[in-house]
From TrEMBL, chain A:
Belongs to the alkB family. SUPFAM superfamilies: Clavaminate synthase-like, RNA-binding domain, RBD, S-adenosyl-L-methionine-dependent methyltransferases. GO terms for biological process: methylation; tRNA modification. Pfam families: 2OG-FeII_Oxy_2 (PF13532), Methyltransf_11 (PF08241). It comes from Apatococcus lobatus. Keywords: Methyltransferase, RNA-binding, Transferase, Zinc. Residues 423-432 have a biased composition (Basic and acidic residues). One of its GO terms (molecular function) is tRNA methyltransferase activity. Residues 316-328, 348-381, 699-717, 726-741 have a biased composition (Polar residues). This is Fe2OG dioxygenase domain-containing protein. Residues 182-287 form the Fe2OG dioxygenase domain.
From TrEMBL, chain B:
GO terms for molecular function: protein heterodimerization activity. Coiled coil: none annotated. InterPro entries: Trm112, Trm112-like. This is Multifunctional methyltransferase subunit TRM112-like protein. Interacts with TRM9. CDD domains: Trm112-like. Transmembrane segments: none annotated. GO terms for biological process: rRNA (guanine-N7)-methylation; tRNA methylation. Belongs to the TRM112 family.
Length: 833, 122
């Protein structure tokens, strides 16, 4: 971490030799040597070290301390003379850390308490031995096992009707002691987590309805610093080895807790390396009832029930699983702190998160890996997707030959268990029609495309702080390809088959969508179909402005939610009827799961929601004219790839509205609040051209689309920000008619999704419920570096005034409100006639 | 799919005259309990095409709905219970919605009607 600086360089870090634990100076004694100014932070490399490092606020403070230390009398250092010089930091400067408190009371988080030395060393050893052997479940970066009831990471919930193995005896005794604490619920569930060095826990609040009352966590084998946050407030607390943390009331219900992914913590200004591993024992009482706590913003019951995930419903699901959530949601949860993101469920960790944590610790140990792969294999009822196939995918960006049928079925995941007629037919249709055309097997590289972005140079000036609500924002599949689902028509669609059927090489590796319908079908609908179950598990925050709109409606209103996504607005009110529709069959199915009462058992009386879901196209909605009092169209229109089409969809929304009724329409804005977290992850995309796919500029198309093809982009991901920006700018300076700028830029959004292909994670890519059909692979790419599948979605980002102008151009529409809200442009429009 | 939803839907195939209501061909119908809320029913009543609701209920074998209704019946709890059940609690799980004019069948699977149209239908 530290190294010598270049000669004569002054830094804010000091090396202090002849100092440290190995020469009999404790951390506190070392700290006492230092001046208080400049907030010194001590780094003790190890207990055997005879030197320490100190980091100051700035270089001046470090220089002052250096001068001070050189005059420290030897009596203070027990006769030793100190060696003091500047030190440099290798690699990036460490993240700022919040100094941790050592007592829960100092945190001032209501309901938080900490009991130190709750178990003896002997009990600790007994407990660790008791859980050592047996079935551990591999998560992305740590492993876990359950007693009493199994916590399902995909649903963030527990099946109260399915008890599993009881607590081991060694644990039971301690648990009895925990139960005996005042105000403690009847704890009946234990989750044991093993955290390797550097691995943390993502911010979350345990699902309210899943667990009753307080949650207790015992830290064994090593300490941790746990952090807590709520509405901009932030606290950190050291959890010493053998201590019991109790989260009750507000601490449990409203504060997110997490452990940062890092290898050292700051406690009392001292940087303390973490232990090689830590094992936590978390005790909870399973509940399975709706919660009516006073913290609705973080309450799953009051936000509308979460649907069970496909994974949860899979009868023969393997017990191991990777709850890999996507990077977006993690970012959203970590950056929009307290606003809306609730990463509920105790452990949603991402191995593919953009906020990259430490390196995959499992891979560092071959022993670990082999153990885990055995577990994984024994639990897998079916063979996972051949790694070789995926490697091929990775290296060539295409499948040169048909993957084995079983692989495809794996890709289609849980459809085997409950074959949804539509999709299955669809796939079979694909097989029938496309295999002969040799396209079934062709994974065309995500069309290597570029878009022009005349406005890109402005982004840097405009973009500021916060991440947009990636949560709700992209939770919708737009209506798009008309009749794509209609097999008889589509599968033999002459314009489609040859294009996708040709071997990619024959097209220089490019297969471009040739119509808007195809573009939207490939980059929107299919993507959502593929990621629907995964996607739903991470998106359920109710967007406050939308909630406000819904709450303003009269009782008994009929509301169409066009592009309803996972249906998270169904439960906002019980005295209105929501007619949800989505173009994505996958999302419609996920939304429909909300309609069933949650966890039917003797405790629940929750009735079904007043909502329904249909698969329908936003251009041709099935509702009668003037049948709806209000329409929601949240984060849908930006998936539509031309002005006339966007206008047509708005007109369709107006058709189903009764005169005077209002529609809430929101879209993503070019003006994103955080360029680093948003645009940097985007890939420019060429919108359809009617001509031959070509990397050459095609100006005749830009009149319609405002973007024109330039040199093909490499497989840009966030790691390639610079190249993406560079190429985008190149495009901007080149071929764009300014008159068309209104429609640029067009973007595809890469979505990293679980699915690395090491043993423990294959399941994430397959059993995780990804419905990937070959057609969808058009837009799917394998990211070699991150070992993930990347699903790219098409977006048209809206400029200021663009949406309201579009609405104003429609005769029957009146713009009642237009506002910018967290990287979105929103319009409330009413039907005038 | 609830019959309330059925009441709001029509066949959007281009060029036909008679789009409403969909004829229901049911192969599985469930009952899912809903909170009884008389006010909700009173709000819904003026929005509904009663004959369509009655016909849909009949086709699913749901009995007790009168052929015609008047406002004052909305104070009659007996009636409201029957109305509530038919409107909200009877759920079409598997089957088809059939266009009354063209006979085009839209599948309903797991309670979700698929109302996507073919290209030549729009």
């Amino acid at each position: 971490m530290f190294s010598r600086p270049s000669k004569g360089e002054q830094t804010r870090h000091l090396f202090i030799g002849n100092c440290g634990p190995a020469v009999g100076l404790s951390e506190q004694q070392c700290l006492s040597l230092l001046p208080k100014a400049g907030r010194p932070q001590l780094v003790v490399p190890s207990q055997q070290a005879s030197h320490i490092f100190v980091t100051f606020e700035d270089v001046d403070a470090a220089v002052a301390a250096l001068n001070h230390l050189q005059r420290v009398p030897c009596t203070v250092t027990f006769g030793r003379s100190l060696v003091v010089r500047h030190a440099a930091v290798k690699g990036p400067e460490p993240m700022p850390q919040y100094g941790a408190f050592t007592d829960a009371e100092d945190c001032k988080v209501p309901g938080l308490s900490l009991i130190k030395e709750f178990v003896t060393c002997a009990e600790e050893q007994d407990m660790l031995r008791a859980v050592e052997n047996g079935d551990w479940e591999a998560l992305a970066r740590r492993r876990v096992r359950h007693y009493g009831y199994k916590f399902e990471y995909k649903s963030r919930n527990v099946d109260v009707n399915k008890p599993i193995e009881p607590m081991p005896q060694a644990v039971g005794m301690v648990m009895d002691r925990v139960r005996a604490l005042p105000g403690m619920p009847a704890l009946d569930q234990l989750t044991v987590n093993e955290y390797p060095l550097g691995v943390g826990l993502s911010p979350h609040i345990d699902t309210h309805s899943a667990f009753k009352g307080a949650i207790c966590s015992l830290s064994l084998a090593g300490p941790a610093v746990m952090e807590f946050r709520r509405q901009g407030q932030h606290r950190a607390l050291k959890l010493p080895q053998r201590s019991l943390l109790i989260m009750a009331d507000e601490a449990r219900l409203a504060w997110q807790h997490y452990i940062p992914h890092r290898k050292s913590d700051v406690v009392n200004s001292i940087i303390i390396p973490r232990a090689a591993h830590r094992i936590s024992f978390t005790f909870r009482q399973v509940w399975g009832q709706t919660c009516d706590c006073p913290f609705p913003e973080s309450c799953d019951s009051q936000q509308g029930q979460l649907p069970p995930t496909r994974k949860a419903l899979q009868a023969n699901a393997p017990s191991s699983g990777d709850p890999s959530t996507d990077g977006e949601s993690l970012q959203s949860s970590s950056l929009t702190s307290g606003l809306l993101a609730i990463t509920s469920g105790s452990d949603i960790t991402s191995c593919t998160s953009e906020e990259s944590g430490p390196t995959e610790p499992w891979k560092s140990s071959s022993a670990d890996l082999s153990t885990r792969s055995q577990q994984s294999d024994s639990n897998q009822p079916v063979e996972p997707l051949e790694p070789a196939v995926l490697q091929q995918l990775a290296s060539k960006q295409l499948l040169a030959e048909s993957p084995p049928q079983s692989s495809i079925e794996q890709l289609v995941g849980a459809q085997k268990d409950s074959p949804p007629r539509q999709t299955t037919d669809h796939i079979q249709e694909e097989r029938r029609h496309k295999l002969p055309a040799n396209s079934f097997s062709a994974l065309v590289p995500g069309p290597a495309l570029a878009a022009a972005d005349p406005e890109s140079s402005r982004f840097g000036d405009k973009l500021v702080e916060v991440l947009p609500d990636t949560d709700r924002l992209d939770s919708h599949a737009a209506a798009s390809t008309l009749g794509q689902q209609n097999h008889e028509k589509q599968a033999i669609n002459a314009s489609v088959a040859p294009m996708y059927g040709t071997h990619p090489d024959q097209q220089q590796g490019r297969a471009l969508p040739q119509t808007h319908e195809q573009l939207e079908g490939t980059y929107v609908t299919s993507m959502y179909d593929a990621i629907a179950p995964h996607f739903s598990a991470t998106r359920f925050a109710v967007w406050p402005r939308v909630r406000g709109f819904i709450e303003s409606l009269p009782a008994g209103a009929i509301v169409a939610d066009v592009g309803c996504g996972n249906g998270k607005y169904f439960g906002v009110r019980r005295d209105i009827m929501v007619l949800g529709s989505d173009r994505s069959i996958g999302l419609a199915k996920v939304a429909a799961q909300r309609l069933d009462p949650p966890l039917p058992n003797e405790f629940t009386t929750a009735a079904s929601l007043r909502a329904d879901v249909a698969v329908a196209d936003g251009f041709v909605l099935p509702m009668r004219d003037s049948s709806c009092d209000a329409v929601l169209c949240i984060a849908v229109l930006h998936h539509i790839s031309s002005v006339p089409r966007r206008k047509a969809m708005l007109e369709e929304l107006l058709r189903i509205l009764k005169p005077g009724g209002q529609a809430y329409v929101s879209v993503w804005a070019t003006l994103q609040e955080d360029p680093a977290k948003t645009l940097a992850k985007w890939e420019a995309l060429q919108t359809p051209s009617c001509c031959t796919p070509s990397p050459e500029p095609a100006p005749q198309n830009t009149e319609i689309l405002g973007s024109c093809p330039v040199s093909s982009l490499p497989q840009s991901t966030s790691e390639h920000d610079e190249s993406l920006k560079h190429q985008t700018l190149q495009a901007a300076s080149g071929n764009i008619p300014t008159s068309a700028s209104r429609d640029a830029p067009e973007w595809a959004r890469p979505k990293h999704l679980g699915a690395p292909f090491s043993n423990q994670q294959t399941e994430a890519a397959t059993g995780d419920g990804l419905d990937v059909t070959p057609d969808q692979l058009q837009g799917v790419r394998f990211d070699e570096q991150k070992q993930t599948l990347v699903f790219r979605r098409y977006y048209h980002l809206f400029e200021e005034g663009e949406l309201s102008e579009l609405v104003s151009s429609i005769e029957a529409a009146h713009v009642a409100e237009c506002f910018y809200d967290k990287s979105n442009w929103c319009v409330v429009m009413s039907r005038t006639t | 799919m609830k019959l309330l939803t059925h009441n709001m839907l029509e066949c959007r195939i281009k060029g036909i005259e008679n789009r409403y209501p969909f004829v229901i061909e049911a192969s599985q119908v469930d009952t899912v309990e809903q909170d009884f809320d008389p006010d909700f029913l009173r709000h819904m009543y003026p929005r509904l095409e009663w004959p369509a609701l009655k016909a849909a209920a009949d086709s699913l074998g749901v009995t007790g709905l009168p052929t015609s209704v008047s406002e004052d019946m909305l104070e009659d709890e007996e009636f409201l219970k029957v109305f509530h059940h038919a409107l909200l609690e009877v759920v079409l799980i598997e089957g088809f919605l059939v266009c009354p004019e063209s006979g085009r069948k839209f599948p309903v699977s797991k309670g979700i009607p698929n109302l996507l149209l073919n290209e030549d239908e729009v």
